[in-house]
Amino acid sequence: MATRYGLFTKLSAEEVLRRAEKFFCPGGGVTITVAQQGNLTEVDLVAREWESQVLAFMRRLPKATPR
Fold first, then answer.
1. How many other CB atoms are there within 10 angstroms of residue 4's CB atom?
2. CA torsion, points 19, 22, 23, 25, in degrees to nearest 10?
3. Which of 13, 24, 48, 61 could serve as 34's disulfide partner, Cβ 3.0–4.6 Å?
4. CA-to-CA distance for 32 and 30, rounded, in angstroms?
């Protein structure tokens, strides 16, 4: 079963993906989707047995609140 997580950040979509690639390396059961929403980036993560790693990655991203 997959678990979905999401957040908004002030980082660019490209920077989020760069950090994700470095953090997760090749492989793993994580799907990441990013979408630019004005000056924020919406990050959607789906984990399959990698929940603790996804939560650790999310803690490393600066959070932002959409208005």
1. 10
2. 140
3. 13
4. 6
pLDDT in tens, 5-55: 999 999 999 999 999 999 988 777 899 999 999 999 999 999 988 899 999
CA atoms 34, 9, 17, 50: torsion sign: negative
What is the structure's pLDDT at 49? 85
Using 50, 70 and 90 to split pLDDT, how confident is the model at 57?
very high
Tokens of 52: 């603790």
- Buried b or exposed e, range 10-40, using 16+ CB within 10 angstroms: ebebeebbebbeeebeeeeebebebeeeeeb
Domain boundary assignment for the chain: 3-60
